[in-house]
Amino acid sequence: MPRKALASLTLIAAATLTAPQALAAAGCSAESPAHTVALVELYTSEGCSSCPPADRWLSTLPGGLGADRLVPLALHVDYWDYIGWQDPYAQAQFTARQRRLGQLSGSRTIYTPEVFVGMRELRGWHNGSTFARQIQAVNAQPARAAIALAMRPLDGREVELEARFALPAGQQGGALQGVLVLYEDKLVSDVRRGENAGVTLGHDRVVRRWLPRVLEAGAAAQVLRETVALPAGWNPANLGAAAFVEDMSGGEVLQALALPGCLAAGG
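Below the sequence we write its predicted structure tokens.
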């Protein structure tokens, strides 16, 4: 029988927070800095005519701010699919997350394109100075969690991901969760119907796998490990990983980290 696309995600207590050596030796790894890295979430859709400029904007990030300053992710929602074009990257869970973030921001509506920084809506994202100030404000905060992230290719078009999370002393469990993300760059779609009919769209940082787990209180460090079987059409050379710790009760990101594509083509 063929293996499932996603094996079960395991949560393991660990004593230390260091980049996993076995994965790092065969792939690549990264560790989060002492300051808070900003998580930038763009909610978008190929069925939305106003979204392509936002998609292009996201592709320019992190730009001059540096990779250690922000983690940009594109989450495609499914609520525009009804108008004639089914977004191949849309997931219902991203629509649900956008609604949740909207509630945390005190908004009764969601829309595309919409940008959240650190789980808070940023309406002025398209203004360069406004966006830079928001990122700088996040970066000025000391990190309240630490993350080590690694990925490596396996035989048979599989990728192994591992994120280690260290929580602050005295932090209460239950409301905190760690999220492990696999994203893909350099995606191209020829849209044939809907508002963008006849347009060729390019996308970067498109979230392919979103793997959240509640973090346990009382453990010095915890590990999320996942083996992902890559469907046909996914390019290993364009894959990257990200991870972050969020407080779902208060709507805050304690720390985020990205690991840009580092896998050999055809791995």
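Confidence is low (pLDDT under 50) at residues 1-16.
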